[in-house]
Amino acid sequence: MTASGLDLSILLPALAVGLLVTATHVPLGIQVLSRGIVFIDLAVAQVAGLGVIFADWLGLEAQGWAVQIAALSAALAGALLLTWTERRWPEVQEAVIGTTFILAASGALLLLAANPHGAEHLKELLVGQILWVNWSRLPLVALVSAVILAVWFGMGSRIGRAGFYLLFAAAVTVSVQLVGLYLVFTTLIVPALATHQLRRARLAMCYALGTCGYAIGLLASATLDLPSGAVIVWTMALLAVPVFALGSRPAPPG
Predict the structure, then answer these.
(1) Is 18:130 a contact under the CB 8 Å cutoff?
(2) Which of 129, 139, 154, 204 is deepest in the core (most CB within 10 A)?
């Protein structure tokens, strides 16, 4: 999906979605990186995607509440499973996360095998449909994002391991259907990774990096007639390089 000939009526809702995803995923991404469970976002997002595909396989309406409930239920189940495995076998949690991702991805392929539009559905799960987002979907996304941010910044570490996984599952369930798996992972990990050595204003720098990544990426995709999701991924990664270099500089003596 390219951005050729698109105007602001399409780019602005896409940018708004990108900013909402950035708002919730940046603080969660910092926590994911500090916990050393980087691939949890891929696993939970893939499980949420499996819930969407399973609902579609059952013949439910694509944008209906039943699909949203299926996606959230799948993500919460995956999050609870990973909470239990982290408590039970913390030394192999990354391997469990990877296995969960592979099983969910393979399950999605099996459900899509007999679907004539299977390839299209798989592409939507991976790269998203950010350019097809309209203003009517944003109020609910904004409300969910506000609740997630209120819980995170209001309670922080007091929500515990299970609370973190459940909050993470809710955030990813919303975002993966809007921007796709690739952008979910990029928004969570790239800003956190680029700033992991910064001692000051790390959160602000992460937000700036995510915001610029979406804004510049959308404009570049429209100008170059290239897929928006892939361009945003590369834009954010390229912007992260100087930020990472800035944080890696040795502190001045004194």
Answers:
(1) yes
(2) 129
pLDDT digits (tens, 9 = 90+) for 30-60: 998 888 778 887 888 889 888 888 888 887 7
What's the predicted TM-score (pTM) here?
0.85
What's the CA gap between 12 and 7, in Å, rounded?
A: 9
Position 4 pLDDT exceeds 50: no
Distances in whole angstroms, Cα of residue 58 to Cα of each of 48, 70, 112, 153, 200 = 15, 11, 12, 38, 50
Cα 87 from Cα 160, distance rounded (Å): 12
State the fold for domain 8-248.
Answer: ABC transporter involved in vitamin B12 uptake, BtuC (1.10.3470)
Rg over alpha carbons for the chain, rounded to the nearest Å, is 18
